[in-house]
Amino acid sequence: MRKAIVITALAAAVCLLGGCDFFRQLAGRPTSRDIEAKKAQIEREAEIHQQHLDSLKAVQQQISDSLATLESMREANETLLSTRQLAGGGKYNLPYRYYVMIGAFSSPENAARQASKAEKAGYPATQIPFKNGFTAVGVSPSNSLSEVYASLKKLREEAFCPKDAWILNNE
Questions:
Q1: In Å, how far are 46, 74, 121, 170 from 49, measured between CA atoms?
Q2: To 10 degrees, the CA torsion angle through 45, 49, 55, 61?
Q3: What is the pLDDT of residues 93-114, one digit of tens each?
């Protein structure tokens, strides 16, 4: 009978005092609330870590694609010029990294004429004044080398595009 009273009293104390959390707290151990908070924190950290890994994979894929594109361009003897190679200049104030260059002219009027031809064909053109006095005409801007190389191949089929069109790398 005494055992039954002790067990009943213990069960009543556990129910009234909040279950195991009461004893955990007395023993200096984390409560179920602490455990749930830690679990949520670990899940958030794991999610952030996975986002970082996904971001790194995306960058690795872009690098891999760019290297493959560069190899294709090298095999096809395509021209990729950096702005640093043009008249000793540095990076120009352009919104995109790559442009398909469809001409460089000593006369700004000729550059405007070529830009007009490109725009009539549906390719918005950007006139880029180089530091050596030439004005170049760039179309199909992109931040992806693969995209701009695909644009170069497509543009070569257009009547206004010269066969010696090249890619400007504004770095």
A1: 5, 37, 46, 33
A2: -160
A3: 788 888 898 988 988 899 999 9
Cross-strand pairs, 126: 138
Rounded to two decimals, the pTM is 0.58
Q: What is the CATH number of the domain that holds 140?
A: 3.30.70.1070
Provide the residue type at 112 as one letter: A
pLDDT reported for residue 88:
47
Tell me what pLDDT residue 87 has: 47
| Total domain count, the chain | 1
The reply to whether 8 falls in a domain is: no
Q: Does some domain include residue 29?
A: no
Distance of CA 169 to the CA centre of its chain: 17
Q: What is the DSSP string of 75-122?
A: HTT--EEEGGGSTT----S-SSSEEEEEEEESSHHHHHHHHHHHHHTT
Collapsing DSSP states into helix, strand and coil, what is residue 159? coil
The range of the structural domain enclosing residue 103 comes to 78-169
Q: Say if CB 151 and CB 88 are below 8 A apart.
A: no
Segment 4-51, tens digit of pLDDT: 776 776 666 655 555 677 777 778 888 888 889 889 999 999 999 999
